Amino acid sequence: MKLLVTENYETLSQLTADIILMKWAENRRVNLALTAGSSPKRAYEILSTRLKTVAFDQSLAHFYNFDEITLKDQDYGLTMQALHEELHQPLGIKEENIDVLDAENYQTFDRKIAEDGGLDLVLMGIGSDGHFCGNMPEFTSFDYGVYRVPIEPEDALYKLIDESSPHTPGKEMVTFGPQTVLAAKELVLIANGEKKAAIIKQALEGPITEDIPASVLRLHPNLTVILDKAAASQLA
User: Fold this and answer.
1) Catalytic residue positions?
2) Which of 127, 163, 190, 203 is most deeply buried (CB count within 10 A of its CB)?
């Protein structure tokens, strides 16, 4: 594991953008699974600016959403809506370069990834409970590939989506499981802010356990963890 501790969120974002650009610059097809959310937001802004000034063949980059939560009466789920807004549209990614994981194709998605040449890079955040992608402590197994989790109205995840989204949650979540993520060629985990310090310490320095799903990422031979000083503040 390579651990990079940056002075601040801006530097973290610069490094994250650099890693994505280095993959893009290899002048071959690259398969990328990049997270949505607040942590990578600035990195994607930097990436968008750089792509306007540097000549990259955008057709070589293919994008995979690593999880999805269905929404009622919507063409796309929660993750794809966020990725379109935060990543695909600002970077000008064409529809044919976006490979969508959803509740209809999740059972064959591991095979599709393999047929496409495997994932070159997975960029993830970490939840305050230690989850990565959609791998929550209460139901994940380190043995899982891509899998489905039903969502019921009484579930905490349903209530969270219902409260934070203008759309009604659907019936399921699908996600890359630990085995799918660990099969990628390179993993990058990013976290910023003091609120992530406690879970970062558990994930990076505690036991590897399904109770802290992100701890399994330490088994990958090419894992880079990028933190700002606040997120790294509890590390030994």
Assistant:
1) 67, 129, 131
2) 190
